[in-house]
Amino acid sequence: MKRMVIMLSIVGTIFACGTVSQVWLQGYTKNVSEQLTQLSEDVGSGNGVQHEISALLAEWHQYQKWLGVWTMENNLDPLESHLKNAEVLAGYPEDETYRHQLRLELLNAADAAEELWEKEKVSLQNIL
What gap in Å lies between CA 47 and CA 50, rounded to an integer? Predict the structure, then answer.
């Protein structure tokens, strides 16, 4: 009977940790996606977009190591790639062509954040 209690406690702990990490990941990716979408709208006004992208990229690097424990690391690469491209594009001169490319890159990064959640959420398709 003691073994059964210990085994159920271990399974319950694993389930609780998995649930908490899923909820956190969903909230984090949704927040990042919303920030990137808002930044894409602010590109035309030039309200310190380059600084905001650099801050998002620094925050991403902070969480990336921790996320690598809970998620497949190859799923993290597209978001980082889009953020780096957006940071480079934000440094270019105030030209409409570059601004348009920056908007698209920020929207692609927002989509990559949402895809990260879709690839990592617990579902039968992702388990199989």
Answer: 9
Share of the chain above pLDDT 90, in %: 12
Contacts of 26 (CB under 8 A, 6+ apart): 117, 121
Angle at 18 between CA 12 and CA 24, to 5 degrees: 135
HSE of 90, CA atoms in CB hemisphere, 13 A:
25
Side-chain-side CA neighbours of residue 113 (13 Å): 25
Q: How far is CA 20 from the centre of its chain?
A: 17
Name which of 24, 42, 43 is nearest 32 in CA terms. 24
Could you tell me the CA-to-CA distances from 84 to 21, 39, 55, 89, 121 in Å, in that order?
26, 14, 11, 9, 25
119 falls in which pLDDT band (50, 70, 90)? confident
| Burial class (CB within 10 angstroms; exposed 0-12, middle 13-18, buried 19+) of 67 | buried
pTM of the entire structure?
Answer: 0.78
pLDDT tens by residue, 46-64: 667 888 888 888 888 887 7
Mean pLDDT of the chain: 82
